[in-house]
Design a protein that fits this description.
Layout: E1 14-15, H1 16-23, H2 27-35, E2 42-43, E3 49-51, H3 53-67, H4 72-102
Antiparallel strand pairs: 1-3, 2-3
GO molecular function, one term: DNA binding
Pfam families: MerR_1
Keywords: DNA-binding, Repressor, Transcription, Transcription regulation
Length: about 110
């Protein structure tokens, strides 16, 4: 995906301090979620973490799930399942489009 095609929600431009303020989560907790591979910030050349608005939403979902008593490994499993389902849906959509184009099917 070209950089200019990335949604504003997915641009990694927010520092961990601002993320902490927006979510109410401590910086330590945010780094812990990164260690557990639940969140994936980008790093600047100097190693500063940068997050997106989508990351804020993900962190809030994680915090809600933790508050409900769900363990981080369960959250990761759920997130992986959702990601795989989304990829499968996108692939199927692309294949349907190719088939429709091949046989000149219009909706």
């Amino acid at each position: 995906m070209a950089a200019d095609k990335i949604s504003y929600k997915d641009k990694k431009v927010i520092s961990i301090g601002v993320i902490s303020e927006l979510t109410g989560l401590s910086e330590r907790k945010i780094r812990y979620y990164e260690e557990r591979k639940l969140i994936f910030p980008e790093r600047t050349g100097r190693g500063t973490r940068k997050y997106s608005f989508s990351d804020v939403e993900t962190l809030m979902e994680i915090a809600d799930r933790i508050e409900d008593g769900v363990q981080t490994y369960e959250i990761k499993k759920e997130m992986t399942k959702k990601k795989n389902e989304k990829m499968r849906e996108e692939r199927n959509k692309m294949i349907r489009g190719q088939i429709n184009a091949q046989f000149n099917i219009r909706k």
